[in-house]
Amino acid sequence: MSDDDAPKSAVELAMEKLRMRGDYEEVKLTDEQKAEIADIRSRCHAQIAELEIQHEGTLRAVGSFDEAEVLRAELKKEKERLEEEMEKRVSDVRAQS
Questions:
Q1: How far apart (Å, rounded) are the C-alpha atoms in residues 23 and 64?
Q2: How many Å apart are CA 91 and CA 41, to the nearest integer?
Q3: Which three-class secondary structure state does DSSP give residue 81?
Q4: How far is CA 53 from each of CA 46, 49, 59, rounded to the nearest angstrom?
Q5: pTM
Q6: Which residues contact 48 (CB under 8 A, 6 or more apart)?
Q7: DSSP character string of 33-69
Q8: Nearest-angstrom CA–CA distance, 85 and 74
Q9: CA gap 21, 40 in Å, rounded
Q10: Mean predicted confidence (pLDDT) in 75-84
Q11: Tell me, what's the pLDDT at 3?
């Protein structure tokens, strides 16, 4: 059985259909782009980890449940902002090709 005859996953079938309809164009990234994207993601994940550590210490110092909930909401919002920023930077790198 050749690779072409091998069963395909649902993702492979969906991608094949999109390509056939012209709704998807595969973009090949250079090694430099891949490295830059990996660096962007790594830095973002490090920032998020640092933020979580800082918030952990702050949470221990709060006196009430309400204050803790406010801090958790702030952490969630900041993490979402960092992740959105990361995705935008990754998209910018992908668009360079």
A1: 52
A2: 12
A3: helix
A4: 11, 6, 10
A5: 0.70
A6: 79, 82, 83
A7: HHHHHHHHHHHHHHHHHHHHHHHHHHHHH--SHHHHH
A8: 16
A9: 33
A10: 96
A11: 57
